[in-house]
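Standup notes, structure subgroup. Blocker cleared on the iron/sulfur cluster input:
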Amino acid sequence: MREKAKPIVKGIEDKFFYYITDNCIKCGLCTEKCPKGAIEFTDDRYHIIEEKCIDCGTCSYICPVGAAKPV
Ligand code: SF4
Ligand code: SF4
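Run returned:
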């Protein structure tokens, strides 16, 4: 079990989020596999929409370069 991270979105307590680092090679795998459609491609990079993310870890698990990380 990971320790709880500080909530970074107001009003949503005790929730983890994932984010995508600059190591991303833009393969799009995470977008295909995210069960909540929480990963979008805008401004020439992939972003995780924190409000939609349910902290399942799928993106982190499948990312070939380890670019999707928990906060
Ligand atoms: Fe980027 Fe990893 Fe997602 Fe591929 S799976 S788009 S490398 S974050
Ligand atoms: Fe989607 Fe799960 Fe990654 Fe959140 S942790 S962005 S819900 S695949």
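Discussed briefly. Residues 7 and 13 are 5 Å apart (CA to CA).
Next: hand off to the docking folks.
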